[in-house]
Amino acid sequence: MAVIVFVAPHQDDETLSMGPSIRRHLDAGHEVHTLLLTNGINSAIRGQTGLTRPAFSAARDDEFRRACAALGVPAEQVHITRHSTPDGALTQQAADDAMSAFLEQYPGAWVKAYSQQQVEGRHADHVNCGAAAVAMARRGSITNLRLYAEPWLASKFTGLASERSTNDAAVLAACDAYTVVDRAAGRYGIGGLSVPDAFAQFRRDRTSYYHFPPA
User: What is the pTM of this model?
Assistant: First the structure.
C-alpha cells in the first residue's frame, strides 16, 4: 500500500480530472490524500451567489470536502493549505511550498499533480502546479509522479494514458457536491455554475487522463 496525494489547484479539480483515478487507487487499497492549493476567492461567478468573499471561499471549500467524502477520501486525509493564495495567482513557488510541506509529513508519498504542458485553454494555476511538481521530481523531492490533464482538453496533450472509474456512483456523487443547489443548507452549486460544460462532459465520460513526467 502506498501513500498517495492528489494535488488540486482549485476546488473541483480533484473531481473533474482526478476523480476516477482517486477512486481506483482507493479501491486498490492505497492511502489516498487530497491537497487543495488555492482559496477559490476570485471566481467570476461569486456575484451569482450573493456571498461575501470569505463566505464564498468557505462555500467552495465545503464543496471540496463534500466531493472528497463522496469519492471515499477520509476527512483527516483532506488537506486545505492555510495560505492566502487566491485562484488565478498560484505561482510555481507557492505550489512547491505546499507540496513540500505535505511531503515533510508523508515522506515518499506518490504525487498526482496537474500537467505542466502548456496547451491552449489551460489555466495558469494548473500549469504552475505541474511545473512545480516536475521541478521537485528533478531534484529528487518527488520519487513517484503522474501529471493529469483536463479531460475536455485531452486531445491537445501528448503522451496521455487514461483510466476509467471503478465506482461510477462515487464519482457522480462527487459531481453532485459541486452542482446541487440548496441554499437553505448552505449549498450553492458553485462548481457547476463555474464550469457547467466540464461537469456535463464528466458525467458522460468518467475518465482520468495523465502522463508520466518528462525525462
Answer: 0.97
